[in-house]
Amino acid sequence: DVLDLDAQLIEVVSEGNRHIASVRFRGMVLEDKAGPATPFDEVWNLIKPVGGSGGWTVAGIQQMN
């Protein structure tokens, strides 16, 4: 369960025939109902064709911790 979530758009660029967006997600997650909540801090890199023929897809996830 995600208990707290903050998202921040870091950057959007157009490169060749695609748009690239980087979004930083931070918050608290509960992986085990009996366990404590743990923090997470990740940057998701998303891509989308410039022509608009498809939606955003995840190209990579980078752990910041």
Q: Tell me the strand order in the biggest sheet.
A: 1-2-3-4
Q: What is the approximate shape? A: elongated
Strand content: over 45%
> Spans of 5+ residues with little confidence (pLDDT < 50)?
none
Fraction in helix: under 10%
Count up the helices.
Answer: 0
Estimate the mean pLDDT confidence.
94
- Rg, alpha carbons: 15 Å
Distance between the termini: 19 Å
Q: Secondary-structure element order, as H and E?
A: EEEE
Instruction: State the major sheet.
Output: 4 strands, antiparallel
Strands, count: 4
Structural class from helices and strands? mainly beta
Commentary on this structure:
The protein is mostly beta strands and 65 residues long. The protein has strands at 2-15, 18-29, 38-49, 57-63. A 4-stranded antiparallel β-sheet has the order 1-2-3-4, with no helix packed on it. The chain is elongated. The two termini are 19 Å apart.
Q: What's this model, at a glance?
A:
By secondary structure, this protein is mainly β.
Keyword list:
4 strands; mainly beta; 65 residues; single chain; four-stranded antiparallel β-sheet
